[in-house]
Design a protein that fits this description.
The chain is mainly β. The chain is about 5% helix and about 45% strand. Strands 3, 4, 5, 7, 8 and 9 form a 6-stranded antiparallel beta sheet that branches. Strands 12, 13, 14, 16, 17 and 18 form a 6-stranded antiparallel beta sheet that branches. Strand 16 and strand 17 form a beta hairpin.
Amino acid sequence: MKRLVLLTVVAIMFALLVVAPASAQGPTPPPGLYVTDLRTTPDPPVRNTPLTFYATFNNTASGDQNLRWLVYIYKASNMSVSHGETSSILTTFAPGTSEKRALGYWMAGPGGPCENFVARVGWLDVNNQPVMFAKPDGKVFEKLFTVCGRDDLPKPAPTGAGGPPPGLFVTNLRIDPDPPIRGADLQFTASFLNTATGDQNLRWSVLLYRAANPANSFGETAAAMTTFPPGTREVRALGNWGIPLGGPCEYMFARVTWLNQDNVEVPFTAPDGKVFEKGFTVCAPQDLPPAPPPAPAPTAVPTPRPTPQPGLFVTDLRLQPFPVRGFDITFFPTFVNTSGNMMTFTWRVYIYKAADPSHSYADTTLLQTHFSTEPGEVQSLGTWSLSLGGPCDYFFARVGWQDAENKTQFFMKPDGTVFEKGFTMCPP
């Protein structure tokens, strides 16, 4: 009997050693690095549409931390097995809060009802094993989201056939390739400006017209159901359009339209109230004008470039909350450092009235920042607000840095033009 008991105890101890070794829980992230939020684009998520994830990290340590991370997606009904994941990306997390874009995307297939999913953000340890990030309270970070088919998304409220909901405009339309050519699939990306205080949901498309016959559309893209949050957003049209080879250069123009409750296409307007139109010429590849010869090298002494060299750019600027008179606005520029090395600059955000672009109207406080080689958002120091008691007013913002002589130089975009972000301030 004693021998049987001894054998049983030994067997239990051996099982515990096999099933639950000391390292079963795996390592934990470096102290002080947490995930506090996760957002998706598009929002709300749609079936059969690539979904991009943006995680907000909070590094409370005193120095940079380097980790390879990714997003894991689970069906809410089965949390034991991941349903998909993004690609892993090696990122440097500077002290403070920063939003990082996950590498790649994830997509729920077509067909089926609305379905609940849960996303976790994980990092890969030295053995390439995933370890889930926690929130500052020590619990594993999880974000619940619902994916629906386009027909199951919330329908826009009836607005009549006269125009889109108040405050939703189109400000630009990009065409790729540029210049457009015959025989190629042309893709259209529209810039929308929502000056309302809440999201607006619309089904929209791009209509193409021959300039010689503006009364009848010549073609169109597929209709896309999109949620437009307050502010500026660039959205790619669903599908593409093209003209076959075998003809001369031809002048066209495009309008961006939305489908009202009667399924009638209504053109969007620009902020000035006029119908938005974008003119363009489509030629056969051999009919495109030749590229201009390179300019001769200048003989004058070169002047300093008005952007940090080499390779520090601003690609976006987020305002939080949505700009409204009487509320403090915080600015979040997105910086891209292509130099391959850490760079340090003292910078601030400058605000201009659109009616007076020669003089800044206000600015934030100077802030010294160390920029790693990973793109990311940085919060400006201080806030700005516009007092109550006036109408809507249009502004634009630039991000400037202080050179060795304490003079302001403005950051550029990667295309070499000065970065500017337009926005409208209206009463609540």
